[in-house]
Amino acid sequence: MAAVAEVIGGHGGNWENSQLAELAGAFAGIIEVTVAPDRADALRDALSAVEGLVTVAVPAGVTTTDAIDAAPARQFAFQVLGNDHPGIVHEVSSTLSRHGVSIERMTTATRDAAMAGGRLFEATIAASVPSSVDIDGLTSALEQLAAELQVDVALLE
């Protein structure tokens, strides 16, 4: 997902709405992107070059015993809310990836801000965190990112 977000941002696109989920070890979903009309073809071509973007595959090296022997992952859910601007999804997904966290589901939307004007971006993310990942460190990294992006990040129960 970080690779897709990087391509979108690199072509001046803005990630608007999405429904994403991890299914049977593969990531699947639909993303709505806005981009200037004169950049749409270049974005489409760049996205088609992202390896594994559209694929049907069984992950190599994964066996039933690997799944049984592995320590169970913990669930981690949070919400991102702030003024909409390009790069939010890329930065959040990159931060999670650097910490070894896998996004299981993500829903995004943009909407008009009620009183302040402008557009708001909102994402709800459910992630799978390996037992080896320090949750406090991950939370701190997300809080730091929120300050940099000027968005709010709230952990969900």
From TrEMBL:
**InterPro entries the UniProt entry points to:** ACT-like_dom_sf, ACT_dom, GcvR, UPF0237/GcvR_regulator
Q: Where is the ACT domain?
A: 77-157
- Name of one Pfam family that matches: ACT
This chain's protein is named Glycine cleavage system regulatory protein
